[in-house]
Amino acid sequence: MAAIAAPNGLNNPPNSTVYVKNLEERIKVDQLKEALTEIFSEYGNVIDLVAKKNLKAKGQAFVVFDDPQAAERAIKEIQGFELFDKPMVLDYAKTKSDATVQKEGNADDFETHKRRRLAEKGTLSCSPSASSLNLRTDLTSPQPERKQANEAAEAQKKLKRSVAVNGPEPAARPAKASRGAGLKSSNPAAGAVIPEEYLPPNKILFVQNLPEDYDVEGLTSIFGRFEGFREVRLVPSRKGIAFVEYEAEAGAISAKESTAGMALGEEGKVIKVVYQRK
Asked: ∠ CA 194-200-203 to the nearest 5 degrees?
């Protein structure tokens, strides 16, 4: 059977799995997966989504749909759009995912698929739940996923060229894609606004829904325990909000992760902590 050619502008032939790179590496994996699931679910049924914490796999994810047509729609409409202030670069994955093989085949097919994957990785040990999307850091490994991981390291250098080659889609594309949380067009004219929950890291936090009796001293006792704390700033004309500044983003990230959803005051008001919009 003749090989299926890759569509124009893409490296790999169509299949049900979308390879996403140039993602914001400082975002927690769980938060990244939540945002990606919400975005890609607009285009079809997502049966699996893989994003890893290890250094080699950061900034990348694999989104598995239940059919190739959904993957095609997602690539066409999301290509070049921004998530956490970074334009996503999309392609088809080079191999079928475990989830796809399990869906399309039987137990024997899946066992054959796993044995082939293990042979490609050159290892005899692999978790039964590990996916063929599970990237390795072994530089001698020949599997396609490792090559994609290496390619991602060059994503930033090639980004401008990639966006230029893909070009903006017709006007209908930004309108549909902008429904995904945190998604906006790389074209300034589109004007989509990132929801607060998906803003990229900033050294300044925006705290909302505070009890009215909480002052600078009270907030300092909460946020001052994180590295690089500088100050708390209240807004005189507005009650219930404050800005907390750190010397670097690392301190703000730690503070946000530790205090978001914290209940304060006698009424137990749950505060909302997000990054200040840049």
From this structure: 130
Please state, in angstroms and rounded to a whole number, the distance separating the CA atoms of residues 41 and 262: 30
Write out pLDDT tens, residues 84-107: 888 999 999 887 767 666 666 666
Predicted confidence (pLDDT) per residue in 145-174, tens digit: 445 545 554 554 555 454 444 554 443 443
Say what the pTM is: 0.44
Shortest CA distance to 13 belongs to which of 24, 3, 5? 5
CA atoms of 131 and 116, how far apart (whole Å): 12
Burial 123-133 (b: 16+ CB within 10 A, else e): eeeeeeeebbb
Buried b (16+ CB within 10 A) or exposed e, 236-267: eeeeeebebbbeebebbbebbeebeeeebeee
Rounded mean pLDDT, 259-271: 90
Query: Alpha-carbon distance 78 to 19, whole Å?
Result: 12
- Cα separation, 248 vs 135, in Å, equals 31
Q: Which single residue is written with the structure tokens 């997602």? A: 74
